[in-house]
Amino acid sequence: MKILVTGGAGYIGSHVVRQLSEAGYQVVVYDNLSTGSADALVCGEQLVVGDLADTARLDAFFAEHGFRTVLHFAASIVAPESVTAPLKYYTNNTRNTLNLLTACAKHGVERFIFSSTAAVYGMPENGLAAEDGATSPINPYGTSKLMSEWMLRDVGLAHGLRYVALRYFNVAGADPLARMGQRTPEATHLIKVSCQAALGLRDQVAIFGTDYPTPDGTGIRDYIHIEDLAAAHLAALGYLERGGESTVLNVGYGRGESVREVIEVVKRISGVDFPVVEAPRRPGDPAMLVARAERIRLLLGWSPRYDDLATIIGDAWRWEQKLTAAR
Ligand SMILES: O=c1ccn([C@@H]2O[C@H](COP(=O)(O)OP(=O)(O)O[C@H]3O[C@H](CO)[C@H](O)[C@H](O)[C@H]3O)[C@@H](O)[C@H]2O)c(=O)[nH]1
User: ipTM exceeding 0.85?
Assistant: First the structure.
């Protein structure tokens, strides 16, 4: 049976698509290639270049393929950008998810896996976010994803569609064989930006905020390896195939690293002592965001294999070197 993966040519989607193909699933990728790349589909998966804004196309596409399972990655994902361009986020994320759910409801989709984000929590008390805790996003990116979760919950109930919404923490790293990774040249994510500085593609790395109430004054995040994150999707799919009920799960390791710690590991692994400057806080950034990570282990039997910052950064570094060499 064919599985639809929207945004499957993107950073996260392409890792999941490869793991699905390796597990024997037949995958159809629907992607507008705005940030994704056909080269990221390394197992010869079918790629349909299309936009979720195009509802007529989507309807015909669903009628043609008869999907029962959908994994939805297509989205805009840069939290700081969403503060200055909120409509882009409500359009690409919330409205396009509505378009997709409309097609799913009409065409009898039964299982749905949604790329959600830890940004739905905003600033949780003591920096630890649990699935049944409060959601209170502090940027439009988080709001756009939370609205999508709510639509999914209601559409799921009304139309017999079971789902798993996975709330990702800070996804980083790359395929250990460096076949795919994060491509966007105008990166904003800390690990990628630091690798680019080590490669001489940037003059320096700015630390956004050194006066946070954390041990070294810089922001703390739960960085998770892309391979572990991708494996969580296959575990979620297996769960739904076994008849599992709709649920929301954090995908993180349950521990955090500071901006300074990340930069030090990038310097150590790359062997480059690139310049680092201290800058003001970035709007929309919580001081600390770390997962309560028990639920996914209990419910899906998922356990991480790459949960060490040096492994994450080592794989990111190899990928960035390869990307730069190919330019
Ligand atoms: O040049 C930089 C870039 C980042 N940071 C800091 O590094 C930390 C991580 O920032 P990232 O930009 O790498 O990631 P975010 O935490 O902002 O957001 C990411 O994680 C979120 C959930 O935690 C969402 O999933 C979102 O899509 C994704 O962008 C923050 O404290 C940030 O202030 C810097 O100091 N300098």
Answer: yes
Residue 71 pairs in a beta bridge with: 5, 113
- Supply 30's token pair: 């629907």
Nearest residue (by CA) to ligand 1, atom 30, is 219
| SS3 state of residue 290 | strand
Query: Is the CB of 282 inside a 6 Å radius of any atom of ligand 1?
Result: yes
Dihedral class, residue 268 (left if φ above 0, else alpha if ψ from -120 to 50, else beta): alpha
User: Could you report the per-residue pLDDT of 244-259, keeping only the tens digit for each?
Assistant: 999 999 999 999 999 9
**Residue 19 is assigned to a structural domain of this protein:** yes
Q: Does any domain span residue 184?
A: no
Statement to judge: residues 197 and 125 lie in one domain: no
Q: How far is the CA of 189 from the centre of ligand 1 (A)?
A: 5
One-character DSSP codes across 194-236: HHHHHTTSSS-EEEE-S-SSSTTSS-EE-EEEHHHHHHHHHHH
Return the best residue to mutate from 148, 188, 189 for the ligand 1 pocket (most ligand atoms within 8 A of CB): 189
Which atom belonging to ligand 1 lies closest to the Cα atom of 205? 1
Res 102 pLDDT > 90: yes
- 185 falls in which pLDDT band (50, 70, 90)? confident
The number of distinct structural domains making up the chain is 2
pTM score, two decimals?
Answer: 0.96
Residue 18 tokens read as 């490869």
Report how far residue 311's alpha carbon sits from residue 139's, in angstroms, rounded to the nearest whole number.
30
Please state, rounded to an integer, the average pLDDT across all residues of the chain.
Answer: 96
Task: Tell whether ligand 1 has an atom less than 6 A from the beta carbon of residue 190.
Answer: yes
